[in-house]
Amino acid sequence: MQNGWSNLSIRHRIISQSGRTFYVKYLSFQNGCFIALDEGSDALGSVSISISSSNKTSTAKVIPSKHDSMFVDTISQRVSSMINGICLASFHSTKQLQFEDMKAIMDEIMKLISSEGSHNDNKKVDTKKANGP
Fold it and tell me: Residue 109 forms beta bridges with which residues?
């Protein structure tokens, strides 16, 4: 029995202008997503969860951050608003981010969410065509 998990995980590498390398792991679900960011350590770090519905977003810190406490909250809030669902975001870094780092990460995540949204819309259309009226 195939569960379709192989299509859900997306990985990206981001190199910021400051020269730091970050890795984004994205796992998509029907009603939300999980985003894990790290600097190659393959570790979980600070965690925030946001849920959005009817243009209202609620966010909770699950694990606070030593550095950049607002950044992981901002990621989960923006993504949950874009997908109108739940976003669980984790971020592990070795030191505080520079503005260039935050901008590079956020830009890549926004591109990823935008492209994943259009990819899911195409899947829904294809499913309807395959199943018939």
Answer: none
Which CATH topology does 5-131 take? Answer: Ribosomal Protein S5; domain 2 (3.30.230)
Contact 17, 72 (CB under 8 A): no
The H or E element containing residue 126 is helix 99-131
Q: What angle do CA 60, 111, 130 make, to 5 degrees?
A: 100
E strand or H helix at 69: helix 69-83
* Sequential DSSP letters for 16-40: -TTS-EEEEEEEEETTEEEEEEESS
**What's the N-to-C CA distance of the chain in angstroms?**
26
Could you tell me which residues come within 8 angstroms of residue 101 by beta carbon, excluding any fewer than 6 positions away? 16, 18, 20, 22
* 8, HSE (Cβ side, Cα atoms, 13 Å): 13
Per-residue pLDDT tens over the stretch 12-59? 899 999 999 999 999 999 899 999 999 988 889 999 999 998 889 999
* pTM, rounded to two decimals: 0.79
